[in-house]
Design goal:
globular; 9-stranded mixed β-sheet; 3-stranded antiparallel β-sheet; about 30% helix; alpha/beta; about 25% strand; single chain
Length: about 220
């Protein structure tokens, strides 16, 4: 059973999606801790209601980002996770902490990477006039939103969309995208090799795509 630690700064909707999938038996995993830089984060309340360890550390109590991250990841290491999921965590992570956990940390980002890195992705997409937007799950590296992409889900940008309507449409696809990606990780099918993301030990030359059935479409391979 995959042991998951979740990093979140906000409401925790992706955390809730993981919890629901675990409770329904669709994901062979256990969430062993939820960690946040904001004491008011909804994700911490969700964890507390489910009797999951919930930890809040304020960056203001540390002199540097490196010192804060060292303290944070020390607490994360205490719960011995196999996988760390950044689900709406809004702080940059120190290179040292990221490199020490290569291949064991993923992030869900609300754009079709490499497009629209950073914040305000829905505004960026609308300003750029793209026809398709979406979300990506990628391995975390020191580069902001620049790690190898595992899987993506697209949504159409509709006439009359604003940031709120587009964000809601993307969020509806984020949840199954994250759950199905974590499912493959829990099954040991997705790994990060020296040359990129691997599915069943074969390098993926493009991210997996989430189908209309909210399941990832796996490449067909001859036996």
């Amino acid at each position: 059973m995959l042991r998951i630690a979740v990093l979140a700064s906000g409401r925790g909707t992706n955390l809730k999606a993981l919890m629901t999938a675990i409770d329904a038996g669709r994901l062979n995993a256990r969430i062993v801790g939820v960690f946040s830089d904001r004491a008011s984060a909804g994700a911490l309340a969700l964890a507390g209601e489910a009797a999951i360890a919930a930890v809040s550390l304020s960056p203001r109590n540390y002199d540097t980002r490196a010192a804060y991250d060292e303290a944070l990841f020390s607490r994360i290491d205490d719960v011995q996770p196999d996988l760390i999921v950044c689900a709406g965590y809004m702080r940059l992570l120190s290179e040292h902490e990221v490199q020490a956990r290569r291949g064991r940390m993923i992030n869900i980002h609300p754009s079709l990477l490499p497009a629209f890195k950073g914040l305000h992705t829905h505004r960026q997409a609308l300003d750029a006039g793209v026809a398709t937007h979406g979300a990506s799950v990628h391995f975390v590296t020191p580069e902001l939103d620049g790690g190898p992409v595992i899987a993506q889900a697209g949504v159409p940008v509709l006439a009359g969309d604003d940031e709120q309507t587009l964000a809601a449409r993307v969020l509806g696809r984020e949840h199954p995208l994250l759950v199905d990606t974590v499912r493959l990780l829990a099954d040991g099918r997705i790994t990060l090799g020296s040359t990129g993301v691997q599915l069943d030990d074969v390098v993926l030359h493009a991210p997996l795509r989430l189908g209309d059935d909210n399941r990832l479409q796996l490449p067909h391979r001859d036996p």
